[in-house]
């Protein structure tokens, strides 16, 4: 996170909490300074309130580059260090293809189709769907 | 114009006039040649008409002094017809070499006629004319081959597109479970299409599991494996778990021999096993009950 990309923007990404879950919605492009601010905000919120899960909704993002990929991975790792699970929700097909072509498969990140599924995954489900079991490790596979 | 150029020009004009004058006889002889006889099987008149069109084209090219030029205006009009004839021969199993040979066979009857025109067939003028006509028929052969090849390329390009569209259906197997039966060899263009349609289906069906069935994939090499891994990774980023099914024993051995690591991918031997796995992961239980239609009382 050195020089700002396309001018530093003063705006912040809001970090609202839903019970024990932080629900962050990313839209458009994320600048360096915003990303740095977001990482700080998230870790601070996890430290100061009983947060156990972080949902990052990227359904409004049409371009993900290696920079944003790294930011997401860093947010997930730092949240994990503070005992909170991060779930990435709503990635668009085009974005997924781009990331795979870039070789960024985000191995440590939990991914789901949309925010509803993310909340299910974290066990705060509002829907009637049965909670989905945690993403399996090899030992739990059939 | 140099003297030689002028002489060549007048020879070409002579040949052109000869072709016009003897059009009927040439067409009659050509209609019995293999090329026309095998294409126009229905009626001989049709073959004669087609032959006349070709003779006209040759005559026009010669009149313009362009015996070696495949872009001569005369050839343009018969290009379609020649292309169709060559395509029709190719469909009946003739190789390009055979077709070229059949076009070359058209030369002999015309040359014979041309020689008959001259009181002294060994004379200089006769030799010049025969040479010009030989060159002209050579050009005709190139025109036929070129037309046939470019038509073939168009067909190949169109079929490749159709194959991309047709060969990658995404099927909904259950609520939240989609499957792609892959048939044929996976190359980068196809795997791109597969990936896109699978990801779109995951969004549309809100799928939690996606099954890639490779029963119809004849061989798996490191490139195909890489395409599969990419598709699996992209589906995971969308929040769906991918299962690769239909790995036949021979393919399993190949994968192991090549040292490809599919360790992060869930694999099952058949589509049914993959479906069972996906259902179980979603907490859906399939139980066998009494057969339909059998009364319980």
From TrEMBL, chain A:
This is Anti-anti-sigma factor. PROSITE patterns: STAS. Residues 123-142 are annotated as: Disordered. PANTHER family: RSBT ANTAGONIST PROTEIN RSBS, RSBT ANTAGONIST PROTEIN RSBS-RELATED. Residues 11-122 form the STAS domain. InterPro entries: Bact_StressResp_Reg, STAS_dom, STAS_dom_sf. Residues 133-142 have a biased composition (Basic residues). It comes from Streptomyces lomondensis. It holds the Pfam family STAS. It comes from the Bacteria. Gene3D superfamilies: STAS domain (3.30.750.24).
